[in-house]
Amino acid sequence: MALALSITALTGCFDGSEDVTQSADATAQTQDDRLKLAMLLTPRTGLSPLSDDAFKFSRWSVGETLVFLNAEGTLEPKLATEWEQITPNDWRITLREGVMFHDGTKMDASAVANALDKAANAAPKPRILDGVDWTVKTDGDNAVIVSSKEPDPLLAQRLSSPQLTILAPSAYGENGAINPESTATGPFRLVKLNGSSTATVDRFDGYWGEPAKLAGIDVSFVPDGIARASALRTGEADVVEAIPVSQAPLLDPSMIREVAMPRTNTLYANMNSSVMKDAGMRAAVREALDRQQLIDNVYESRADIGVGLLGPALPWAAKLRQPVAAPVAPSDPQGVEIVLGTYTDRTELPEVAVYLAQQLTEAGFTVKQDVREYSQIEQDALAGKFDLFILSRATMLDLGDPVAYMSSDFTCEGSYNLAQLCDPAIDDAIEAASVLPAGEARQKAIMKAERLILASDAAIPLLHERVIQGESKRVREAIADPRERLIISTQTHLVSSDSAK
Predict the structure, then answer these.
(1) Chain centre to alpha carbon of residue 282
(2) Same structural domain, 270 and 360
(3) In 3D, which of 211, 191, 186 has the Cα closest to residue 202?
């Protein structure tokens, strides 16, 4: 029997903030303004939407997806106006009419099917499609049918991931090459990416929805947190991602927005390393940690103790969490040497590494640190070249649901498995959670999987972060988004210096 779960079109879309009425004169004054945006991470794949670079596309309102996940975790229309599960395996997606790509071509069913097909057949797949096998076909000119090999109760939510941004056919070249310049559909158009230093983004006047108030965005990639904070103080940036906690007290409080994030600072133990493959050694690492010292001394109390993989941004997790049964007893390290790695892009992590190295040394380990920029260290981390690796990890980045994160990080075939973890029981638990519809049963299954992961000591949660966003006094309607999908919207604009006082 077909399932009639049609979602009808809604008017408007979530912009993360309350409307602020501006006079006609003030609005007109800002129409030609360009906003200066300082970003944390440099592009890793030339802004390919099939990677985490997709979230930059999304944050600038350049790339768009078929559906949109609002602040409450509810799906809203974007490039699709309706979505209907017509069988357990098949979903019909009705497309918005009148949408134009930035290259001037029309968005139709063929273009959407092409974009989704490129993602489904990419190597490696986007993280959002880990463990997912689907096919896409057109259904007339204005709809597509997405069919999953196995029933996927969250397929519609999956389509909200920035990694499934819809690009024009002209974006896709030979051998998997993707050119994101002038090929998306959003209110802003990527004009030029200048390597890993800057990007130029202009308003797209052919946008299907409400036009953007800003003329454009001048993006700078500034991995150094102190430099980002300095750019805000000096006026070199209007909006700044991820102000380091050490810099927050040096800024005008009116320029700071602090948001609780579903992001966990986690210590990954390499299950294949000569030292950490021993469960007793991993337990010794766990027992050596002083999380409160990290929060007090590194995060200046702007973080929460990591009691699990999922933090206070998911209130249901704490309610359903149960103790880990019979944890392994710690072994005596006896001075064994281990390599502890992390990256500089998140300013606090090198300092976290220093404190952890001290704690582990006191426990009997000999610790060697390896700290580099993320773009330089990621390949080694994925290849398992560290005994321990500190990672700041978003746990709800894709679906508003942590199963995709767990599948990516903790299954045998996971594409981001820094711990090199491969446990059939954990795979089965994550799979069991993945097939359940949203609700309490799915949440309980997720917490069972978390409990098994914690019992392995392959991932040892340290703390749950709060991200601090900086905004100059001229900025209006920028978005502080807990899911890190939005920062600039059509409503974002600048006011005159006199108005900002």
Answers:
(1) 28
(2) yes
(3) 191
Q: From CA 306, how far away is CA 291, in angstroms rounded?
A: 8
- Model confidence at 23: pLDDT above 60: no
Domain of residue 206, residue span: 26-63+186-238+472-501
Q: What is the share, in percent, of the chain residues with pLDDT greater than 90?
A: 73
What domain count does the chain have? 3
Identify the band that residue 474 occupies on the pLDDT scale cut at 50, 70 and 90. very high
Domain final residue, candidates 151, 175, 199: 175
Ramachandran region, residue 449 (left: φ > 0; alpha: ψ -120 to 50; beta: rest)? alpha
Q: Tell whether 349 and 457 lie within a shared domain.
A: yes
Task: Indicate the helix (H) or strand (E) that contains 138.
Answer: strand 134-138
The Cα 463–Cα 392 span in angstroms is: 9
pTM of the model: 0.70
Do 170 and 207 reside in the same domain of the chain?
no
- Burial class from Cβ neighbours inside 10 Å (0-12, 13-18, 19+) for residue 168 reads buried
C-alpha span between 234 and 308 (Å, rounded): 39
Of 321, 282, 283, nearest in space to 305 by CA: 321
Please state, as a whole number, how many other Cβ atoms lie within 10 Å of the Cβ of residue 10: 14
Claim to verify: residue 199 and residue 339 sit in the same structural domain: no
Give CA angle at 399 (42, 73), nearest 5°.
115
